[in-house]
Amino acid sequence: MLEKNMLDQLNGQLNLECYSYHLYWQMSAWCAAQGFPGSAGFLRLAAQSEQKHLEKLLNYISDTGALPLIGTISAPPDEFPSLPDLFQQIYEHEQAISDRINTLVHQALMTQDYTTFNFLQWFVSEQCQEEKQWKRILDQLEWLGNESKALFLFDQSLQHTG
Ligand code: OFO
């Protein structure tokens, strides 16, 4: 059984995963509207991966006998100054998610909630992979520069990824 504080934190994380899911769908729609089909498709895959995260949390909370609560999800941004800026925002968002996961892991350990501690290990590895992926994309963008031809090639390269 989950302690009340841990349940609240996990429900908070569930809400954040729902936000990430909405964020990547919104970003995908923006990319499609701007003529970046490769990035749009890649972000649809990212949204699907967020759906897995929220399902995992929801199932875990249910398995403990508690009630998952999604709550109010803030609207994601729908305008971005440029494609590189959008990917920069994703990287920063994922870094913030990693910090949140680390806080949860710390709390689980401090309260001797080893079941939750064990459950969260999957998210620790997942965040490591996600940060690596978004950083790699940012590095590519930096190398290519902001010219429209470079962005076209970058977008095409994402069509063959994922
Ligand atoms: Fe992108 O890792 Fe969940 O939120």
Characterize the overall form: elongated
**What is the fold named in CATH at topology level?**
Ferritin
What is the typical, i.e. mean, pLDDT? 96
CATH top level assignment: Mainly Alpha
Count of strand segments: 0
Bound small molecules, by name, code or SMILES, are: hydroxy diiron-OXO moiety
Structural class: mainly alpha
Range of helix content: over 70%
- Report the total helices: 5
β-sheet strand percentage: under 5%
Uncertain residue segments: none
SSE order in H/E notation? HHHHH
Main sheet: strands, sense, barrel: none
**Distance between the terminal alpha carbons, to the nearest Å?**
38 Å
What is the radius of gyration computed over CA atoms, rounded to a whole number of angstroms?
A: 17 Å
Description:
It is elongated, with a radius of gyration of 17 Å. Helix content is 80%, strand content 0%. It is mainly alpha-helical and 162 residues long. The chain has a single domain, classed as Ferritin, CATH 1.20.1260. The chain contains 5 helices and no strands. The structure holds hydroxy diiron-OXO moiety. The site of hydroxy diiron-OXO moiety (OFO) has 7 residues, from helix 1, helix 2 and helix 3.
